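Any chance you could type out a protein's amino acid sequence plus the matching backbone structure tokens because I've never seen that pairing?

——
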Amino acid sequence: MIGERCEIGPDTYIGPYTSLGNKVTVKRGEIENSILMDGCIIDTEEKIVNSLIGPYSLVTSNSEGRPRGKRLILGERSRVEF
């Protein structure tokens, strides 16, 4: 499921069993088997799997490298930098 007014960039992979809430932005990254609630922003080289990311959370990365699976459970307005 993909909610209303989402932005999904060209360098992304939205895998099976993934739901995006409204106004979610995925600029870069791979997401599988996860739920991203309203207003999340994802801009990372990492692969996010089996995760629940709360509303208005920001997930970014600073480093370059091989994508590896990350498992996240984040509450509302969380921020994560890999």
